[in-house]
Amino acid sequence: MFWAAHVAVMVPLYVADKAVLLGGTFALLFGKPALIVMLALTWLWVRDRSTARAGAA
C-alpha cells in the first residue's frame, strides 16, 4: 500500500513536469514521516492479529 500511494502521487506530478512539487512537497509528505506512520500502523495491525489468534486458541 505504501508503494502504491507513492506511485499514485508521483506519476501525475512527474507527467505534469512539476519538479518543485515532486521534489519538495512530495518528499516532505511521503518521506520519513509517512514511513514512521506506516510502520506504526503495521505494528498495530500485526499486534492485533497476534492477540486475536492467542484469544482464539
Tell me what you see in this structure:
Helix 2 packs parallel to helix 3. The chain has three helices and no strands. The chain has helices at 2-15, 19-30, 32-56. By secondary structure, the protein is an all-alpha fold.
Topology:
Layout: H1 2-15, H2 19-30, H3 32-56
Helix pairs in contact: 1-2, 2-3
Number of E-type strands? 0
Q: What is the H-and-E element order? A: HHH
| Helix fraction bin | over 70%
- What form results from the Cα inertia axes? elongated
Q: What are the defining features of this structure?
A:
57 residues, mainly alpha, 3 helices, 89% helix, elongated
Summarize the structure.
This protein has 57 residues and is mostly helical.
